[in-house]
Amino acid sequence: MSFPPPSGPVVLDGGLSDQLVAQGRDLGDELWTARLLVEEPEQLLAAHTAYVRAGARVVISGSYQASFEGFARRGIGRRAAARLLGDSVRLARASGARWVAASVGPYGATLADGSEYRGRYGLSAAELERFHRPRIEALLAAGPDVLALETIPDAVEAEALVRAVRGCGVPAWLSLTVAGAATRAGQPLDEAFGAAAAADEVVAVGVNCCAPADVLPAVTRATAVTGRPAVAYPNSGAWSRSARRPSSPPSLPSLAPAWLAAGARLLGGCCGVGPDTIAAMARALPAS
């Protein structure tokens, strides 16, 4: 079966960090969830499996904050780092999910200072492309079904990532983090979504880790600008590195049908969204 399927919604997983905290893991580390690739990979598999049992058809690998540079600061060489990036895909595959999305998080995530929510790193699109390309190549070598270019805060990085996946032979989705009608860096959404419009590899465009109220207008713009299906997986309305938040609100499953009607085909949750909410979302949407 191709990715994504030609019609009908596909349920994504929820916040990986939230499930790991629920499993008793401490994520107070600059590698965040990627630390477990090194020390406790079985915990990542357990978290992915919890979402599959909840009804997720797609699980996103634990590579959001994984990078050659970040691993190097732990004394891990490039060959071992490439293996760890591949392990993130293999662990997701072992969960039994129908599809595996390899997470390509933003440059700012590797800085571990929250700058993925600000963007404008002072780097050019060419510099950002050079940073992302080796990570993407290592993830592709492990055979994901799709690349999740996710939590992207500005149009420059969106452009860089679209360049980096051209000709890769694997579909990708591009997902921005937004604030109202703009990227987190303050640019018009049309500018950032437009970066994907001419790239055949990008099969869906949308938003993640944003406020639930921002999803519908952003999805509407994404489909209008690109003509592609949309992806939507917001957070619970609050963000915290510790992942210690109240459980996700019951509003996400009730909002999902409107996102579907606006063109979203890939729907799930991000920070603060756990398996119970994903299960409720799966029940709220028609089966694909």
TrEMBL record:
<feature type="binding site">
    <location>
        <position position="271"/>
    </location>
    <ligand>
        <name>Zn(2+)</name>
    </ligand>
</feature>
<dbReference type="Pfam" id="PF02574">
    <property type="entry name" value="S-methyl_trans"/>
</dbReference>
<dbReference type="GO" id="GO:0009086">
    <property type="term" value="P:methionine biosynthetic process"/>
</dbReference>
<dbReference type="InterPro" id="IPR017226">
    <property type="entry name" value="BHMT-like"/>
</dbReference>
<dbReference type="GO" id="GO:0008270">
    <property type="term" value="F:zinc ion binding"/>
</dbReference>
<protein>
    <submittedName>
        <fullName>Homocysteine S-methyltransferase</fullName>
        <ecNumber>2.1.1.10</ecNumber>
    </submittedName>
</protein>
<keyword id="KW-0489">Methyltransferase</keyword>
<dbReference type="InterPro" id="IPR051486">
    <property type="entry name" value="Hcy_S-methyltransferase"/>
</dbReference>
<dbReference type="GO" id="GO:0033528">
    <property type="term" value="P:S-methylmethionine cycle"/>
</dbReference>
<dbReference type="GO" id="GO:0008898">
    <property type="term" value="F:S-adenosylmethionine-homocysteine S-methyltransferase activity"/>
</dbReference>
<feature type="binding site">
    <location>
        <position position="270"/>
    </location>
    <ligand>
        <name>Zn(2+)</name>
    </ligand>
</feature>
<keyword id="KW-0479">Metal-binding</keyword>
<keyword id="KW-0862">Zinc</keyword>
<feature type="binding site">
    <location>
        <position position="209"/>
    </location>
    <ligand>
        <name>Zn(2+)</name>
    </ligand>
</feature>
<dbReference type="InterPro" id="IPR036589">
    <property type="entry name" value="HCY_dom_sf"/>
</dbReference>
<feature type="domain" description="Hcy-binding">
    <location>
        <begin position="1"/>
        <end position="285"/>
    </location>
</feature>
<keyword id="KW-0808">Transferase</keyword>
<dbReference type="GO" id="GO:0032259">
    <property type="term" value="P:methylation"/>
</dbReference>
<dbReference type="InterPro" id="IPR003726">
    <property type="entry name" value="HCY_dom"/>
</dbReference>
